[in-house]
Write a structure and sequence with these properties.
Blueprint: H1 5-19, H2 22-25, H3 31-34, H4 39-51, H5 57-70, H6 75-81, H7 99-115
């Protein structure tokens, strides 16, 4: 799409108005980061929801909520402070991949992103 700047601005504003509605958000995985007020929780929960975005919306939302609950609904704090025993909360979780095996590596990557955003 190659639009003049004014048209592009208007197009983007229209799309933002279309999608930034409760009626859209309530059935979309974007509801996960929208449920937080802390900026870091928003960033991490959005990244996790995006990581799990494979399949139907209902499944993505359910799996994302399940992971947030396993992190005591404080994903940024969990990522920064999780101990080896805390990581056991991922045991048995299967999303688009097996978090019980990859949880530690993912958390280290997410923690690095929190500390040094691109």
């Amino acid at each position: 799409m190659n639009l003049p700047q004014d048209e592009l601005r208007d197009f983007l504003i229209d799309k933002a108005n279309q999608y930034a509605q409760h009626s859209f958000i309530q059935d979309d995985p974007i509801q996960i980061p929208h449920s937080y007020s802390n900026t870091k929780d928003i960033e991490i929960s959005g990244l996790i929801a995006a990581t799990l975005s494979w399949g139907g919306r209902k499944t993505i939302i359910a799996k994302s909520k399940n992971l947030m609950e396993r992190m005591d609904n404080s994903p940024a704090d969990f990522i920064r402070n999780a101990t080896a025993s805390d990581l056991q909360s991922f045991d048995g979780f299967v999303g688009s991949s097996d978090w019980s095996d990859l949880g530690s590596e993912r958390l280290q990557s997410y923690d690095a992103l929190l500390e040094n955003p691109p």
